[in-house]
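Progress against Task 2.4 (sequence-to-structure conversion) is shown through the following example record, which the project officer requested during the mid-term review.
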Amino acid sequence: MSTFTGKIFYPNDEGFEEAAVGRVFNGRRPERRPNAVLLAENESDLIAGVQLAKDNGWEVAVRSGGHSWAAWSVRTGTLLIDLGLIQDMSYDPETGIASASPAVKGGGVLTPYLQSQGRFFNGGHCPTVGIGGFLLQGGQGWIQRGWGWAAESVVAVDVLTAEGEIVRADANQNTDLYWVARGAGPSFPGIVTKFHIQTRPIYKHAFESVQIFELEEFDQVMQWMYEVDKPRVSEDVELVIVSVTIPGENDEPKRVFVVDALTLVDSPEQAAANLAVFQENPSIERALVNKKCEETTLAARREDQDRANPEHWRYFVDNIWVDGEATEIIEKISPLFKELPEPAAFTIWYSNGLMRPLPDMAFSMQSPAYVATYLLTEDASHDSANREWLNRAMEHAQSVTVGQYLGDSDMGNRQLKFMADENYAKLQEIIATRDPEGLFVRYLASDPATVNKNHWEL
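C-alpha cells generated for the chain above:
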C-alpha cells in the first residue's frame, strides 16, 4: 500500500469535499468528483501517487492553481493530484534562470521574489494564478504583445513520466516533452514538477495611459485603434480595451469602456514617447477620464485584478481569437462590450497587433486581437441566463472568430480550434508514445472526437 508524506482523501473521508474542490477558484463547482485526492508534499508523493493510480486503474488529473474556469482538474474516476503544498522556488544569478514548482503563484509569489533579485518575468496578470496551467497553455503575460508569450521563456521542465521517472526536458534532451510543455495545456502526458524560466532585467519604471469613454464612442475608438495599433504602438506597450462599470448617478453602476496602455521602461522620457500616440485618439475630447502618462506599479494593477476577480464568485467565461476587416470585427464583438448582463462582468480586447513569429512549440494559434468575456455574480439563480447570453454573444461573433485560447476556454460548453492542425497531430503522436495507456487525462471536452475544431465548421 502506498504511503505519502502528504495526505490522501477518499470519498468517505472527512475533508474529501474540501480537498476535491476547495481550491477551485470558480464558485460554480462541477458535479464531477475524483476517486481520491492526493495533497502531495514532494516528488516522492507524486511518484507514489502515479503508482497508486496505476494499481487501481485510475487516470491521473493534476491541479496547480485551481484557476481553470471549467475546473479541468476535477475529473470523474481519477486520482486528483493537487500540487498546492509544493512551493519550491529558486534563482540562479549566473544564468538568470528562475525555477519554480507549478503551484507557485506567478503574480503573488514569483514576481515579488524575482523583484528582490532585480529580475522580471512577464507572467500572468491575475496574482493568484499558479504558473503551472498558465505556462502549459502558452501564458498571456505582461507586454505579451511585444515581449512574447510566457511559455517562450521556459527553457526547461522537470517531468514525472507515465513510467514513474522524473526527467529533464529541454532543447537538447526529451525534446518532445519540452515541445508539448509549451502550449499543450491540460493534455500534457505527464506531471510537470518544476519549470525553469529565463528571466530578464527588471524594468525601472511603469507608466500608463488610461482613457475612459461612454459606450457610444466604442465603434469610433475601436476603428482608430485598429488603424494605429500595429504600425504605431511600440512593442514595449501592452494595449487593452475593457468594458467595465463605474459609479454613475446615485452610485448606480454605469457601463463604460477603458483604453488602457501600459509600458515598462527604463526612463520617463521613453514612457512619454511610447504613450504619446494615444492622445491622437479622435474621441479624446469626449473622454470622461484622460490620464496621459502617469507612473504606476504592477503591484497596484495586481490589486485591481484581485478586485475585478473575486474568488469563489460564479463565473461564466469564454474567449475568441478575432481576425478580419476591422468594421466587421467591431460590429460582431460589440454586444460583448455594450450589453453585458451583470454589473461586475467585464470584456477585454487585448492587442497582439505585432504578431511576433512563434517558436516551434505546441502553442501555435494567435491573431491580431484576443477578446474574452467574464460574467460573474454571487447569485446562482443567474447561471442559466448568463450561460445563454454568453453563448449567443459568442455565436454573433463567429464570422470573425478563428479559434480560442486554452486558458479561458470551456470545451464542455463550446469547442473551438486552439492549435494549428499540424501541431495538434504532432501532439497526438507524442501522447501516444509517452502515455500509451492513457494514464493522464486529456482535454475535458463534450466531444473528444472533435477537439481542436470550431464547432460550427463540423
